[in-house]
Amino acid sequence: MPMMPAMRFLDPKILRSIANLELTARLLVEGMYASRHRCPFYGYSVEFVDHREYSPGDEPRTIDWKMLARTERYFVKRFEMESNMNVVCLLDVSGSMGYQPEDRGRLTKLEYASYLAAGLSYLVKQQQDSPGLVTFDQTIRDFVPPRQGQRHLFTILAKLGALAARENTDLSQVLRLISQRLTRRGVVLLISDCHGDTGATADGIRHLVAHGHELILFHIMDHDEVVFPFKALTSFRDLESRREVMSDPIRLKKNYLQRLGSFRETVKAGCTSVGADYRFIDTADPIELVLRDYLLYRRQRAR
Questions:
Q1: pLDDT tens digits, residue range 83-109?
Q2: Domain 5-24+85-302 classified CATH 3.40.50.410?
Q3: Strands 214-221 and 244-247, how do they pair?
């Protein structure tokens, strides 16, 4: 029986690799339903925070009678609420994400990113949190707000199945727009090759984090971009601006790799300077190992 187009990015091998893991919030998040993540508001939960003086109208059950016995003053206990978590995959669909590698058996960056987004959305849904999806190039193309439920996951998968890479990138502008659209604090998973002005990209990242979101950047590049395997005289074309340049790759390779290393370090520094997570991905890396290694890293760090 053929697989439904909306389901093709749910690879069983990927789902098995993350079956016993979860994505938890490192920062405070806001939500509507009880779950496992810390919330910036107070309520009746299990984690004690502190005391405050009793005020008329407070429920008697919140009074700490032991404090009354010690101080002869009324204090109420405050507990930290737990919340469900909004997790939004912010997926780059600009022209550069559609680069077709020399090895035709390897995924394009957009296909690889779609598998990542689908696997993470499935994981978030399974842990009773709310996945969402935003696709972008120069501006926001699709906005699927975070919600819970199986039907909502199918909506996300259908969007992923219909994507095509096109247009230029303006990552800084998109990050500013999305910070205005996402009114509830949560986790933003940015999946992009980060082509463009690295300084402007760093500003956009700072802007999003300043609005209280936790940002995780999956910086994805094709294996050809990472190792530059070209040998013969080659015409290189920018998939966004359509500009072409004829070059000798053997003479160019050393300078190219140096500039690539500087580019990667600049993007990473823009993330780490504001406390965002950065993970570099080569499309030759197995997706299931990339996801599992990152989730294990987060779990270990939380401990």
A1: 478 999 999 999 999 999 988 889 999
A2: yes
A3: unpaired
